[in-house]
Amino acid sequence: MRDFAVRIQNAVARENAFRADLPQQLAQAQQELKRARDDTASKDEADARLSQLRARHRDDPRLREAQKALERARERWRALTGHLPPA
Fold first, then answer.
1. How many CB atoms lie within 10 A of CB 3?
2. What is the model's pLDDT at position 77?
C-alpha cells in the first residue's frame, strides 16, 4: 500500500512540475513561431527570382515562336487524326 501512495505522490509531483513549466514552454514556443514567421527573407528572395524568371520568359520571342510551332503541329495532328492532341 505504501508503494502505491508513493507512486501517486510522485505522479502528482511530476504533474505539478509539468504545469509549472507550461507558461515558460508556451512563451518559448510562441517566440519560435514568431521567429519562423518573421524569417521570410529566403521566401521573399525566391518569389522575386521567380517573378524575374517569369517576366524574362514571357518576353522571350523564342517562347512565342515555340508556341506557334506547337499550334501548327497540333493543327497538322488534327488534320491527320480528326482531333487535337492534349495541350
1. 7
2. 95
